[in-house]
Design goal:
The protein has 373 residues and is an alpha/beta fold. The protein folds into 2 domains: 25-52 and 281-372, Alpha-Beta Complex (Aspartate Aminotransferase, domain 1), CATH 3.90.1150.10; 58-278, Type I PLP-dependent aspartate aminotransferase-like (Major domain) (Aspartate Aminotransferase, domain 2, 3-Layer(aba) Sandwich), CATH 3.40.640.10. It is 39% helix and 15% strand. It contains 15 helices and 13 strands. It has a 7-stranded mixed sheet, sandwiched between helices. A 4-stranded antiparallel sheet has the order 9-10-13-12. The longest helix has 24 residues, at 280-303. It starts with 6 loop residues before the first helix and ends with a helix.
Length: 373
């Protein structure tokens, strides 16, 4: 009988880039929190979910689906609806199983071992993880102490002609953003060989009077680019995993399609996306709620002595100076789930999602109770 081989020996068959990749912190589920503490009232404020949920119109549309039939592998109806909404050619639209699926796709299509991928820091960890798995080096551009983007440092980084520039605008987890003037200067500084990936997962929550219209500003850019967006946040479809990208041209879309699995977006997600786009009033209601509650919760955290980053997302990045894992555990004991940030330099920060008013109040009451203990 052969002996059991420990994983430490088996791991030699795994590519070193994969073995070195850190696990992604996907956040705690309500079931896990309930099992650990036996609580019946949980405020899940860790993952950017929409407190209003999905459009109520979606249920009727799903009832008509034949789930025995494969989905449209190209998602033509949804791609056309997105194209019409954004005034772009349908050939520039690509669908993903969440926008993170498209992050992986563009990394696999573009990045080679030894390439540089420039990103803002702290970052959405999957930007760095997927780049690293492809063998690329991550070049971090840290934010300033006041949470603003260090534009000159970013320009200096792109001047070295990286293979890819990928960052979230608004930034996840901080909430800062690159404004119109800064975005224009960045585009002008890019070398034609640099692929630009702009992750706009939270764009619906940003102030349209201050935020750059990336799609309009990129129309004359010679670089290959993709602007990523999602139905998970403002449209409330996180459970269905539906994202999309707008590329520089249809040829780039076709290249990315070679990497994309043909049925990566299922029929339920495609149908739900179509209905969600039609029910704009539902989405706008959640945006208005977020703007009011984000300001209220930020002010309360600051009044309690917290350090809070100005945010253009549906979340707040905050610190009370203690380790983020300790604060997250203390909040969990009060029935509140937040996301402790684990990237070096920011391990005293947590990110909390702006939830319903009731959930936000539960969070603030828990914070005050912890600080008073």
């Amino acid at each position: 009988m052969s002996r059991a081989v420990p994983w430490s020996e088996k791991s030699t068959v795994i590519r070193p880039e994969v073995a070195a990749a850190p696990p992604y912190n996907a956040g705690m589920t309500i079931d896990e929190a309930t099992r650990r503490y036996g609580l019946t009232k949980i405020a899940k404020l860790a993952s950017g979910e929409n407190p209003f949920g999905a459009s109520p119109r979606i249920a009727a549309a799903l009832a008509k689906l034949d789930l025995s039939i494969y989905p449209d592998p190209a998602g033509l109806k949804l791609r056309q609806a997105i194209a019409d909404t954004l005034d772009v050619a349908a050939g520039k639209v690509i669908l993903g199983n969440g926008s993170e699926d498209l992050i992986e796709i563009v990394c696999r299509a573009v990045l080679r071992s030894g390439d540089d991928m420039v990103t803002l820091y702290p970052s959405f960890p999957l930007h760095e993880i997927y780049a690293g798995i492809c063998g690329a080096r991550t070049v971090r551009v840290p934010i300033r102490d006041d949470f603003s983007i260090d534009e000159q440092a970013l320009l200096d980084a792109v001047a070295r002609r990286p293979r890819m520039l990928m960052f979230a605008n608004p930034m996840n987890p901080v909430g800062s953003f690159l404004d119109r003037a800064g975005f224009d200067r960045l585009c002008q500084a890019l070398h034609p060989s640099t692929v630009l990936v702009i992750d706009e997962a939270y764009i619906e929550y940003a102030d349209p009077d201050r935020f750059p219209d990336a799609l309009a500003m990129l129309r004359d850019l010679d670089n290959p680019f993709i602007v990523l967006r999602t139905f998970s946040k403002a449209y409330g479809l996180a459970g269905l995993r539906l994202g999309y990208g707008i590329t520089s041209d249809s040829e780039f879309t076709e290249v990315l399609d070679r990497v994309r699995t043909p049925f990566n977006v299922n029929s339920v997600a495609q149908t739900s996306g179509l209905v969600a786009l039609e029910d704009r009033a539902h989405m706008e209601r959640s945006i208005r709620h977020n703007a009011v509650e984000r300001e209220r919760v930020a002010a309360a955290l600051q009044a309690a002595g917290g350090r809070v980053a100005p945010s253009q997302g549906n979340f707040l990045f905050f610190s009370f100076g203690s380790p983020s894992t300790d604060l997250a555990e203390d909040l969990l004991a009060h029935g509140v789930i937040v996301k402790p940030w684990l990237q070096p330099g920011y391990t005293d920060f947590c990110r909390m999602t702006i939830g319903s008013r009731e959930a936000n109040d539960q969070f603030l009451q828990a914070v005050h109770a912890i600080l008073a203990a």
